[in-house]
Amino acid sequence: MTPELTILTLTLNEAGALGEFLSQLGPAIRPVVSSYEVLIVDGGSTDATVEIANKAGVRVVKQSKPGYGNAYREGIALSKGKYILALDADSSHPKDMFKTFWERRHAYSVVMGSRYLPGAGDSRPWGRRLLSRILNAVYATVLACPLTDISGGFRLYRTEDAQKIVSEGPYYDVVAEIIVLLWGEGRKILEIPYRYVPREQGASKAQIVRFGLSYGKTLYQLWRRLK
Questions:
Q1: Distance, first Cα to last Cα, the chain
Q2: Is the pLDDT score of 5 beyond 90?
Q3: Domains of the chain and any CATH numbers
Q4: Predicted pLDDT of residue 199
Q5: Between vectors from CA 28 to CA 26 and to CA 30, what angle results, nearest 5°?
Q6: Interatomic CA distance for residues 90 and 40, integer angstroms
Q7: Residue 36, SS3?
Q8: Within 13 Å, how many C-alpha atoms sit on residue 29's CB side?
Q9: Rounded to a whole number, what is the largest CA-CA distance in the chain?
Q10: Minimal CA–CA distance to 181: which of 191, 169, 195?
Q11: 88: Cβ–Cβ under 8 A, 6 or more apart, which residues?
């Protein structure tokens, strides 16, 4: 029987966070949806991530190609539910908002959280908030796209729509790429404000440069595809 929902998360050495994440899913999801699966796409964890997931009885798939973009694509392709709830395993996305997403699903291809609508918030350090705002502003301006949080990953997709999208982004830019392509196809997308509270972690300057270049390349490719 096809489940109503696939809960999709990507992992790489998430043993410290995954147990709590999985324990919180049931109370947030079961009162709203009776039929769902949890799908974890693991990027080759060397800690106890996979063991914790297996003990919890969730479906675990080892990604076949390296990179966040490939893991995200594989997760969408392998999802069995009619809808896909994509969220992070570090519990930075508020699961109690799922009910609100679910209630609005019929009218939209994607119901997604936005850190930049009135009433929303972002608890990351100011430097990362600034870079994110610049990124989203540049994408929205160049592509004439009305979405406020193109790079945000807290989303409820209609599976049949998401699985039709052909994306190429190698890193986190895949998230921006998919939502822009859905919008470009005329799919209806609803943004709902939420407060993003990430775990404390840093990012090297090399990562920022590499990801920035990748976002730039993806933006150019999207501009060419949509013009």
A1: 41
A2: yes
A3: 5-226 (3.90.550.10)
A4: 67
A5: 55
A6: 13
A7: strand
A8: 21
A9: 48
A10: 169
A11: 9, 153, 154
